[in-house]
Amino acid sequence: MRPKSWICRIETVLVAIASLGLFAGSTFSLQAEPFETVLFEDDFEDASLKKEWGSWKSESLIRDGVLVGITPKTADHPSVNTVKLPPLSDLEVAVSFKFAGSNKFNIMFRDLDYEGSHAGHICHVVVGAQSIDLVDGKTGQFLKSIRDLRKAGIKPDAATLELLKTKVSHNEISIDSTTWHDLVIRIEGDVIKVWIDGELAGTLKSEGIAHTTKSNMNITTMDREVHYDNFVIRTPEPK
Fold first, then answer.
1. Which residues contact 145 (CB under 8 A, 6 or more apart)?
2. pTM of the complete model beyond 0.85
3. Interatomic CA distance for residues 107 and 112, integer angstroms
4. Distance (Å, whole) CA 91 – CA 221
5. For residue 197, how many C-alpha atoms fall within 13 Å in the half-sphere facing its CB?
6. What is the pLDDT of residues 121-146, one digit of tens each?
7. Can you list the pairs that 170-174 forms with residues at least 24 positions away whose Cβ atoms lie under 8 Å?
8. Are the CB atoms for 195 and 164 separated by under 8 Å?
9. Is the distance from CB of 189 to CB of 207 less than 8 angstroms?
10. 181 to each of 177, 228, 230, how far by Cα in Å?
11. Exposure pattern of 77-108 as b/e (b: 16+ CB <10 Å)?
C-alpha cells in the first residue's frame, strides 16, 4: 500500500530542491502546482468503495487499503470504475498506481449527454509500462462518423487517417512495474498534460479537449490487476 502522506513529503522535497536551484539548466521537470479545489478524493481506507463510485463490467475491490482494478475473465470490455462530475471544462486527476499483472489502464473523460461521439467520449490518457498516449477522442477516434465507419468494417480514407494522427500524442517511457508511481492528468482549455512521478510525460493540444461539460471520469483497467491509491479530482476554481 502506498503511504498516505507521500504527497506532502514529495511536494516539500521538490519545493526545497527547486528553491536551491540544484536542477537549473537540467532536464528535471518540476510538476505544476495542484489545482486549488478538491472536488472528490478517496484513499480507499474504507472496507468498500465510497458511494460516489460506480462500476461497469468490473470485479474491482478494495484490498489492503488500495483499489484493485480487475476485469472479469468473461467480460467483453475492460473493467470500468467511474465517478460522476458536475459539468466541467478544466480539471485535474491525481492517482498513485502500481501494475500488478495488467500493464495498462486508461483515465477517460466523457460527457454522458453528448451524442457526437461514441458513449460521450471526450478525451483520455492510456498509461502503459512503456508508453503514455494522450487522446482527443471527441474529434478523433470516437467521433461518431469515424466510429460508424469502423463499426461497419470500412477503412477510413487517407485524409481521415492523417487527421487521426493529430489527435494522439504518443510518448515512450519506461515504468518499473514492481513499484508505485504517481500520475497527474490536467486539462486546461484545449490542452491535456500528464506527469509521471513529477516529470512531464506528455502534452496534447486539440480542440475536442476543450469540451465544456465533462461529466464523467473512468478508470478503465485492462485485464487483471492494477492497484490504485490516493485518488483526487481537483478543479482550478474555489467552491
1. none
2. yes
3. 16
4. 21
5. 9
6. 999 999 999 999 999 999 999 999 99
7. 170/131, 170/132, 170/133, 171/131, 171/132, 171/133, 171/134, 171/201, 171/202, 172/130, 172/131, 173/130, 173/131, 173/132, 173/201, 174/129, 174/130
8. no
9. no
10. 9, 10, 11
11. ebbbbbbebeebbbbbbbbbbbbbebebbbbb
Instruction: Classify domain 31-235 by CATH number.
Output: 2.60.120.560
In the chain, the N- to C-terminal Cα span, in Å, equals 31
Burial of 110 (0-12, 13-18, 19+ CB in 10 A): buried
pLDDT at res. 2: 64
Residue spans per domain, the chain: 31-235
Cell triple for 93: 486527476
User: Could you tell me if 232 and 40 are in contact, meaning their C-beta atoms sit under 8 angstroms apart?
Assistant: yes
Q: Which triple of cell numbers denotes residue 5?
A: 502522506
Question: Is residue 196 within 8 Å of 181, Cβ to Cβ?
Answer: yes
Here the cell at position 140 is 478523433
Which pLDDT value is given to residue 34? 87
In the chain, DSSP assigns E strands to 37-42, 53-56, 61-63, 66-70, 79-88, 91-99, 104-110, 121-128, 131-136, 168-172, 181-188, 191-196, 199-205, 214-221, 224-235
Closest CA to 116 of 146, 149, 88, 144: 144
In the structure grid, which three cell numbers stand for residue 85, read together? 462530475
Phi first, then psi: give them for residue 184, nearest 5 degrees.
-130, 130
